[in-house]
Amino acid sequence: MPAGQKLKSLRNRHNITVREVEQASRRIADVKGDKRFCISNGWLAQLENGDSEPSIWKLFSLSIIYRANLLDLLLLYNIDVNQKEKYEPVADPYLTQLISQNCQAVSEIAASLDWLSTGLNVGQTANGEDCPSHIIYGHLGLAEFTMYPMIRPGALLKIDTSQNKLVTNTWRNEYERPIYFIELRDAYACGWCELQGNQLLIIPHHSSRATVRRFTYPREAEIVGRVVSYSTNCVDVAHAGATI
Hints:
Umud Fragment, subunit A; eight-stranded antiparallel beta sheet; 434 Repressor (Amino-terminal Domain); alpha+beta
């Protein structure tokens, strides 16, 4: 059912006429001192017939008059405020960021960015249980080359926040060396880490063009957790379609 018809059905359910909607909205607009909250009966008829689109001000008035949740009215027009995290990586894919603490949301985000394939479901563990609360996810920005080519820009990172202390044990190869997700003052980063006094060093992969970055720890940088897995392309996206 179109959004306008759903609004009409909601109005009829409360036995409210279009004239009563106009009168009630005018009172709201008077108190607000803003005529944008006022709904004329002619405009409401157009809205219910699908010939007009509502503004946030008029939807606010309707939510009061119909005693409805404003967020539910927004949903009628395909606006779900709970999907904010889903679209943040889409809006700025060059930014490294945390994307969600909701595993199901991560599945939707990954699908929207075409990160995962072959039916991988990051919303559940291997045995079908919900993922634990200490597991969160991050998006590696398209401008982030610290761990390149091991982890390429655009990767989906799985982060264990229970492992937020630097491990100083030796490792046998670069794949065993812990990779951390770091929160900076106004950004996030991902890489190998070393602690020298109160200085946290973010160490890039030896094949990367990135340089070592140094921050005062923990004032300028904090360890969010250890990257325990990641989904990354095996070739650069720009070159994926190239032929030899």
